[in-house]
Specification:
Elements: H1 2-64, H2 67-72, E1 76-77, E2 85-86, H3 89-120, H4 123-135, H5 141-159, H6 169-192, H7 196-204, H8 209-220, H9 222-237, H10 241-246, H11 264-275, H12 281-310
């Protein structure tokens, strides 16, 4: 009898423990979707908060400065002792000059690196080279800025005597070096995703390895490559510290890349350091510039998504 009672008690306890585990699992299943939703909502709410802040403060700026002057005027002198001039075109041009130089540097280096890693490098070489290449993306941008100012600029001045200490060329080259890993890594991933059967078919038809890489693999990975380039452009447009350190603070509409410039991000840094009092027109101008920069990067990201969907290959 005692043995039967013990067995009955053990079975009953196991049933109760199983019910408790089911209850705990059911509670977890009910609460986890809510927790995950909150985690996802944080990023969405943060984005909405940033956009609303930019919009609200930008409207305060346009109460003092007309939209027509902001986009059409050719001078940006907010700190003038008389009435300041708030034409953003010099800042946009400075940003574009640096970005174009960066892309001219980054695209050839990034794509050739991606072709080598995807089509020519051995597994051992790829495992060694790719992490080293991606380390460049982890270097703080302030370090890149001082590298541009103290190393690249003196080096370029030895070849271009007219180059000023602060210029567009030096930060543009260094930003190009900085965004190269983005193009190389994403393009290499896109090229590696192309099935080997396509490579083997092209080689069987008599194509050389280089012809396969250029005429077969690159077109097949076109969407991923273009998306990486567009994302790199948006990264270059939003770069701050490199241009703030090595680019100067002289907004102008000249196409010359050897003189001092000022980009949208560099202006925001300048004013944020305390050069303007809170509530002044100059203070609110950083939000108008930030809103313009936000629109630039948003358009570039939407373009990257469109290109990815439009030219995506299914294998």
């Amino acid at each position: 009898m005692s043995s039967q009672n013990t067995n009955s008690f053990s079975v009953q306890r196991m049933i109760e423990e199983k019910k408790k585990r089911k209850s705990a699992a059911g509670t977890l299943e009910k609460t986890m979707p809510f927790i995950l939703f909150l985690a996802a909502a944080v990023s969405v709410l943060t984005t909405i908060g940033i956009v609303l802040t930019l919009i609200f403060e930008t409207f305060l700026f346009f109460d003092a400065v007309s939209i027509k002057e902001f986009f059409i005027a050719k001078k940006w002198y907010p700190f003038s002792e008389t009435a300041g001039s708030f034409g953003i075109m010099p800042l946009i041009l400075g940003t574009l000059k640096v970005t174009i130089i960066a892309i001219i540097v980054a695209i050839p280096i990034g794509l050739t690196s991606a072709i080598y890693l995807s089509e020519y490098a051995s597994d051992k070489s790829r495992r060694m080279i790719k992490p080293i290449l991606e380390v460049l993306a982890g270097i703080p941008t302030i370090v890149y800025g001082f590298f541009a100012l103290t190393f690249v600029t003196p080096l370029l001045r030895g070849m271009i005597p007219s180059l000023e200490i602060f210029n567009a060329l030096s930060p543009g080259i260094v930003i190009g070096i900085m965004i190269t890993p983005m193009i190389a890594s994403l393009s290499e991933d896109a090229m590696s995703s192309v099935p080997n059967s396509i490579r083997e078919g092209a080689l069987a038809l008599g194509a050389t390895k280089f012809e396969v890489a250029i005429k077969v693999i690159l077109p097949a990975a076109f969407s991923g490559i273009i998306a990486s380039i567009v994302l790199a452009i948006s990264r270059a447009i939003g770069e701050t510290m490199i241009v703030a350190v090595a680019g100067g603070s002289t907004p102008n509409l000249e196409m010359n890349v050897t003189g001092s410039i000022q980009t949208m991000t560099a202006y925001i840094v300048q004013v944020s350091q305390g050069d303007a009092g809170y509530g002044t027109t100059i203070y609110y101008s950083i939000y108008a510039v930030g809103m313009t920069l936000f629109v630039f990067t948003l358009v570039m990201n939407l373009l990257a998504q469109y290109i990815t969907r439009r030219f995506k290959e299914e294998y």
